[in-house]
Queue: 4 jobs
Job 1
Amino acid sequence: MKVLILAGGFATRLRPLSCTRPKILFPMVNKPLLQWTLERLARNGFKEAILAVNHQTEILIEQSRIPKHGMKITYSRDPFKKPLGTGGPVKKAERLIGHDEPFLVLNGDIFADVDYTDILKIHEEKDAVATIALHRVEDPSRYGVAELTKENRITRFIEKPPKEAAPTNRINAGVYALNPEIFNYIPEKRKVSMEREVFPKLVEEGKLYGYVSEGLWMDIGESEDYLEANEALLDLYVNQQKRKVTGKEQVKNPVALDKGVSVGEESVIGPYAILGRNASVGSHVHIRNSILFPGTVISDFSQIRGAIIGEDAFIGKGVKIREGCVLGDGVRINDNVSLAKGVSVCPAKEVSESVLTSKCIIK
Ligand code: GDD
Ligand code: MG
């Protein structure tokens, strides 16, 4: 059975980290999101995945060299500078997917513990053209919202309704089981929104069904969601083992320290600190509720709280970084600089003076 993973979006709300990597490669507790997805698919017996990408994403995925878990990976590319939306890539991959059997489509930018085998089973039991996994959230206005009958037929599907207008709080979890018939519903060679064009058509014909999924589901739309999702995963998946680095530092669980991490004396790491591969932390440093991407350097006496720090960033001595700060890859923060809450810094920028209000540093 085949699966198509949608991975060509631009993730503008995750800037500056998404300036240099697609969302599908954001690390979730030190493992790229795509790797979690491929692992889950392989565990469920899938042998082949088609990644619907743009040219740049394809290059970055290849460079990331993530393990494929024995799966055959094929790329289906949107035309250059002409993104096909969420429906167009399905039509584009028609030949790769074939017409033999139902298939899965996944939004690549979510962490979803949906039972893939079960949704396909339910899908085949109904006379559905599409069955979408539904998850319950508090505020459905950022998502696609579905209203269903007792038999789980979807009677309305509204993409991103205003807060008061959402008929239910069951939202599209971004996991679909589709019949090859779906290809007849998607126009060719143009951008198509699955949610705004295709699903409403299926609703009219009574061919759209829902699969209520109660498993873990996380969207990493904005940096705050991204931090929260990582913290939730830390709680769930990481052994709360005490890991000594030099002996004089203190590790407060839960934390995740990837290979090659070093921590100096009298530093306190955690709770909720995720340090990527080869991150190097000096002495007397405090880091909590934060994510450090691989290769970051944090010099002595610095404090990092509630922040995300991009790959190979360099943080000088005595630096203070507060909640909601997001630093792009390769950023350099010089000694004794303080960053107020909510400051973001574009990739490779150097900051030599303290920033006292929330803003984005672009030069
Ligand atoms: N190849 C390709 N080309 N992929 C795309 C394109 C494109 O032009 N545009 C978006 N995608 C991919 C994204 O990378 C993402 O994995 C998926 O399609 C969904 O697109 P988003 O842009 O992330 O949509 P959203 O988050 O606003 O809303 C969607 O996801 C929600 C769940 O997270 C919708 O499907 C909602 O209904 C749903 O609730
Ligand atoms: Mg999304």
Job 2
Amino acid sequence: MSDIRKIAVLTSGGDAPGMNSAVRAVVVSAINSGIEIVGVMRGYEGLIDWETQPLGLADVRNINNQGGTILFTSRSERFLQKKYREQAAKNLRDHDVDALVAIGGDGTLRGAIAFQNEGINTICIPGTIDRDVACSEYTLGFDTAANTAMEAIDRIRDSSVSHGRCSVVEVMGRKRGYIALWAGMATSADAIIIPEKWDGDYDSIIDTIKAKHADGRNSYLVVVAEGVTDAPELAQMILDKTGIESRVSVLGYIQRGGQPTAKDRMYGSLMGAYAVDVLKKDKANRMIAIKNDILIDYDIKEAIDIQNNQIDSFQYELSKLLAE
Ligand code: F6P
């Protein structure tokens, strides 16, 4: 019989479609196991200020299809400081909370590791559109974001073809190129620029476009992950060196919103329920992850050290081969 009587749940960092399914599964699983559950608003910020609400089944009814996070979120600067983490830990203890479930990306995991020193048992669920939590093959929100980007690029391409232009489309991903690679490959982009593989070889992009132009093509698509290169400068370079009119579209926050796909709802549900199971087994400070499509859990300190989440070279090379 587990010692866990009451748990708190929060979402932190950039919101990601599927977070609501994870929250729902945590709440329903906890209640079904006789565990009381409290929702913490605005991520670690709400933990510091004790901005919470008790969660019952009615609070999480019909939220699987909602984008964003019903618990709201933040990137807490204060939580980086020990005095605020102590305050947050005191709040949890004062309210008899035995453990915390934190849903978010890399920053959330780092916050949980620091929190471990304050004696709080934290279970993390990977949720970020970037898919950049290295220990997990999947992070909640990626599938929805990649599909949103793909659909937007399909539309941009329609206009690009009509006008005979080159479209340079910037997608999100901060230090990871997954959204760019998946959305770019799904739309057969002529070039995909991602941080993991970018060697600064602009000439090869220009040469590709020139060769296709000589071959009779009238429109082109370059998908670039944010932060790798300056998209307007690249568009200008394409215009200068090829004479082809070029336009930039920055997809931005539309990639973070919208109804989650079935995959994000399913994985959110699985991970949320798994987190409660981990707590019922009296495990502490675990990171939930997907490996070989199976749910597993790591010690959170071990999880942060895993660095094997590189972009698959075969997929990247294939994206070039299939860009005809
Ligand atoms: O959540 C991930 C992400 O969308 C990144 O792809 C992007 O760089 C960043 O968040 C933007 O963060 P913010 O919401 O703080 O502008």
Job 3
Amino acid sequence: MSLPKKKWWKEDVVYQIYPRSFKDSKGDGLGDIQGIISKVPYLKELGVDVIWLSPHFDSPNADNGYDIRDYEKVMEEFGTMEDFDTLLKDLNNSGIKLIIDLVVNHSSDEHRWFQESKKSLDNPYRDYYIWRSGKEGKAPSNWPSFFGGSAWEYDKTTDQYYLHYFAKKQPDLNWENEDLRKEVYQIMKFWLDKGVSGFRMDVIPLISKHQDFKDMSVAELPHPETIYASGPRLHEFLQEMHAEVLSKYDVMTVGEAFGVTETIMNNMTDERRDELDLAFIFDIVRIGRDNWVQNEWSLPELKSLFQEQNNTDQFHWPTVFVNNHDNPRSVSKFGCDDPKYRDMSAKLLAILTLTQKGTPFLYQGEELGMTNYNFTSFDEFDDVEIRGNYDQVLESGVTKEAYLQELNKSSRDHSRTPMQWSNTKQAGFTEADKSWLVVNPNYTEINVEDQQSKEQSVLNFYKKLLQFRKGKDDLIYGDYKDLDPEHAKVFAYTRTGVKETYAIILNMSSDALEFSFDLHEHHFTLALTIGEEPLGTVAHKNVKLQPWDGHVYVSKNKL
Ligand code: ISL
């Protein structure tokens, strides 16, 4: 198989910032853009190449910014357009690119388009959204919202319902309407002309709707995304967006491919089709998940999911991530929450994310080994997804205790607790006495300041590994081979490039063990390790690994 085409967005490491929780400069308990600006030197020293900024646009925050009221205005709580321009300039001057979040499957119901659209059946903006008459006094179809209840909301002004896949305050935009699409392309150009380097596209597969709005079957209802993400005109819309906008800039696009089939995913990211460059699929990060329930999973299952995304040709390029703002903290899900091995496991996940094939996406706090928070009551949650689903989950017979126990494994709020900068009050995130969301009390032992001063910290390991990875084309582009898919504790794989082969051996268990892989036969030397092993020539033939230890070997031989 010929090697993939080299691109900056295949080599760069992306770091996601959830602005609400990153750093507060104004003392109101909310993160803001000036706060991010103050941390650009931190990001540069960390060694990441691109920042993905979660929505910074004007919003009433029904879904923490994923409900946009004005696409060309900065959210007041976050600051001003001048602040945004300063952030972009400071990042670029530090050699860091900025991609922003494009949320165009839906807007806020407070957007002027929707305020107009709801006024009358013949309003010029009526068709910017999806309105249908009810049937016998009920909603047009049985489609459910992801955030609880029906996906149809009745509006008495015009005696019709409007569609919202998410919260009622997030009405879906009508992409069948060419004028609406042109407005979206204008918005994209507005930010691209400022110099952003691309977009992360929120639930982009959902923009094309089945126009019959036919009732879902009983089998389809528990997973509406399979219907919502298979609309007939998705590829047409994406190719039009590429032709009208993206083809005119050297930018990167990553689609949140929530709910798509493998075929749609492959078509959406095939570089010969001029649609999107990359996509997030959630099989890995949500392994074992059944909606808000987190079931057990095994390492062989996880390895098979990584194998699947490696079974691609040179026209496709994966993304690699185990954290984001919608999922629990990776060290709590994939690593080890036991303080004895927590840091080791966080470093192991760093090696996994940064040596797998694909563009790595890190999430704020992952570089510290930040963990889930133990929510003790529903009052502590902020997430609209929980609030929206609460009644119907309890009405289904689930007890409050059981729901809370599962949410403590699956809630989106785990990743939204404020970034932990120091062991001063509110973890140095804000001067205010209270943050918008609870600060994890373990900030006293997990924070930037403490880890900057400790050579063996998770933070310094990420810095070392990010530096190690830079420019290593054979590690970045090399072919992937799982050395032992069925092993229950060890994740071992090679990356074979033009000149070098890397062997990554990870002990994802709390047991010391020996992994049989003949290092001498292939002249491997130890290039990077979590534990104390001396680098260079290896004494013993096989690989000896302490609990949660990880080794990266290199050889001039091609395996
Ligand atoms: O899986 C989910 C649905 O139950 C959610 O975690 C999430 O809503 C889904 O992955 C889509 O996420 C994106 O769109 C949402 C927003 O709430 C998320 O933060 C965003 O990442 C609506 O804009």
Job 4
Amino acid sequence: MGSAVKLKKMRISFEHITHRFTNESVLQDINLEIDRGEIVCIIGPSGSGKTTLLRIAAGLERVQNGRIMLNDLLLANSELHPPPEERSIGLVFQDHVLFPHKTVSENVGFGLRNVRNKERLHKIALGLESMRVVEVSDRYPQTLSGGQQQRVALVRALITEPGVMLLDEPFASVDVPLRKQLREDARKQLKANDTATLIVTHDPEEAMALADRVAVLVDGKLVQTGTPKELWHAPKHPFIAKTLSGLQTLRGKVQGPRLKTAFGDLSLSLINGRDKLRENDRAEIGIRPEKVSLAPSESPCFVRDIRFFGQKYVVFIQGDRDTLELHFEKEPSINIGEKVKLNLASAQAQLLSID
Ligand code: ADP
Ligand code: MG
């Protein structure tokens, strides 16, 4: 393995990774490749296996089935299990543990113990500068804000120039305004280092903003991997439709040439993916909430609430059981409590699942 871990520019591949804890299947046949310089975000519901996947690559968990490759060399499989420190993989986890009794500089320099003093100090200064924490270099971790600690943890991981970086919710403890700046700084550094990076986040906006590609993990399966644009335009799973694509989902039943929903019917010809639909199928579709118009009408649906969200007005329509959120640029001329009919003709519907 010695030669593999010294290569700087790396591609990491997960091949057929399947993992269980006691009787519970946690990851099923995961195949994912992250190229050098590429940033891939994993997003998925809590408990879907995101952290486990990172722990397996880092060497904190043994590979049970499948293998992990660095470039074309085997890094780990069920028989080969090099320890974390021999993997040339940088790690930053949510509960980033900086050494409490070391200063920021000492923390960051830890991975450079074998580098000459002068060069080490130079690298530490450059690293801290690149993440804008040079002014806290002599302080101890507990005196820093959450955001500063995350920045230091990132510098510490980046400073040894690992070929691969694994980040598990690295910005979760940082407040929103600082978070955006932090992730932009992180992306810039990761790109500058040409690092293959896998970032777990539960924030869809963050995934869209950071990633070259997004991998969506649901119940231990990768349900879709694609560029933010691909996932936005053609989500293949209800979770993606609701979180990343900003679609509203609704259920209906196929009757003749139409899908009957609690909010009105729409022609099957408007549904992307309609070829899979058969008579009497129950299907879930996603629609663009800004493409639906409303008109007062006798109908089982009514306006439950109207709210102003800054860039848009959001109207909550109550059907018999479900609620639909529609978005409008201008204040809609409709009142709370009013019965309404929806025009779904330009909703840009996407088939998500068939029961
Ligand atoms: P995520 O990071 O997506 O929230 P995790 O990878 O932490 O998910 O966990 C996936 C599943 O595996 C969960 O059901 C979790 O309870 C379980 N799990 C995680 N680590 C262990 C462990 N060491 N032993 C047993 N079960 C675990
Ligand atoms: Mg996790």
